[in-house]
Specification:
This protein has about 400 residues and is mostly beta strands. Helices cover about 10% and strands about 55% of the residues. The protein contains five helices and 19 strands. It has a 16-stranded antiparallel barrel. A two-stranded antiparallel sheet has the order 11-12.
């Protein structure tokens, strides 16, 4: 069935003369020290030059509605290499109101989560090759992109200088990337986490813009199921739910037309009987708190072709244990797996109307957001990487 759907989408996309069509092909080279960045060398060190990402989209107007489709092909070492995927495929039915519209989308719908997540399928305009780890865990990028279900929305201009957008989504996780989701959620591919038929993603997003300021709040609820027989430190966890509520608050301030500042803060609330067992263990260790993270980004544009971005980010598995020392003492797991901090500089330069190149250098400490697969005790707490990406857009 999935192959048939992909065939139909590819067939529709081939009729580009009948639709609004575009896309990109991006090839990346990544140099790291002893960490396993998604898309870099699977051994976590040296050179990983075979990170490829391609994407094409089309929009067809059908009466007063629109069919939107976007498919991608990526090749990243260790992460379902060479997979063709439907990133979104939906029927968008809008209804015009005064100074805006309301509508419903049905199908594989995109999640509007965070400022930077929205540009995952538009690298020519994006600031980062790897999104800031304090907010956007690399292993969750496909889960954060879309889900199969329904989305309702409102876009409305309030005054000449202000407007508001609201999106609400109820969807099943896209399981095209199940292995990647498992790795990102547990650092253990055999953990028993099941993003299966009983798992759901619910999101609510509101964004308000006034003059040169944009504010947003995103709420995401991930409803996971868990099969037990897994140790958390010296304790066995029970079967049950791993409900995760993620709150993200962000502000973007356009100081001038060419200079802006963006900050986002993330807090995670955990519900369900399996999480309660984990929180009891954390309380015994004196480290009971919620996971949280933030990113602060400053971007400067130089003319129409070059933009430079400086960013700093932080993520902690517990707000009561910033560097994971208490959790490490309790669980026996090295503290480096319970937090991440990083600082980076990124550039995006448009070579021509179709070609652009991005470069990114990042230094960090702690590897909570970066480890892919089973935890490797040899991974270094202090790490760095350099990535370069050549993009062709059409």
């Amino acid at each position: 069935m999935k192959s048939l759907i992909l065939y139909i989408v590819c067939l529709l996309l081939s009729y580009s003369s009948l639709a609004d069509t575009g896309g990109y092909i991006a090839a990346s080279a990544v140099f790291t020290n002893n960490i396993s960045l998604a898309g870099s060398n699977p051994k976590g060190q040296g050179f990983g030059a075979d990170k490829i990402d391609a994407f094409i989209y089309s929009n067809w107007n059908v009466s007063s509605s629109t069919i939107r489709a976007g498919i991608g092909l990526r090749d990243e070492p260790g992460l379902d290499a060479g997979k063709l995927e439907i990133r979104y495929l939906l029927w968008d039915i809008p209804y015009n109101i005064e100074n805006g519209n309301v509508g419903i989308r049905i199908g594989r719908v995109p999640h509007n989560l965070g400022y930077f997540n929205k540009l995952r399928n538009n690298p020519r305009e994006g600031e980062f090759i790897y999104l800031p780890a304090g907010i956007y865990r690399e292993q969750f990028k496909w889960l954060a992109m879309s889900g199969d279900g329904i989305q309702v929305y409102l876009n409305k201009g309030l005054t000449e200088s202000s407007d508001i957008s609201i999106y609400s989504t109820f969807a099943k996780p896209s399981l095209d990337h199940g292995q990647e989701i498992l790795a990102g959620h547990t650092n253990d591919l055999n953990s028993g986490i099941l993003p299966g038929k009983d798992s759901w993603v619910k999101t609510f997003n509101i964004e308000y813009s006034y003059s040169n300021i944009t504010l947003h709040y995103d709420y995401t609820y991930l409803d996971w199921k868990f099969l037990g027989n897994r140790l958390y430190g010296p304790f066995m966890l029970p079967d049950g739910d791993l409900g995760t509520k993620v709150h993200t608050i962000g502000l973007r301030y356009y100081c001038t037309e060419d200079f802006d500042i963006t900050t986002e803060y993330l807090q995670v609330d955990r519900v369900g009987n399996t999480w309660e067992a984990i929180k009891q263990r954390q309380q015994m260790a004196g480290a009971l708190g919620h996971p949280e993270g933030y990113v602060l980004s400053i971007r400067k544009r130089f003319g129409d072709d070059l933009q430079v971005t400086l960013s700093t980010t932080r993520y902690s598995a517990s707000s009561a244990d910033k560097y994971g020392r208490k959790l490490s003492s309790f669980s026996g797991i090295p503290a480096k797996y319970f937090y991440t901090t990083s600082n980076s500089i990124s550039t995006n330069y448009k070579l021509t109307n179709s070609w652009s190149i991005r470069n990114e250098y990042t230094q960090g400490r702690g590897i909570d957001s970066f480890v892919v697969g089973v935890q490797d005790a040899s991974a270094e707490e202090h790490w760095k990487y350099f990535a370069t990406q050549l993009i062709y857009s059409f």
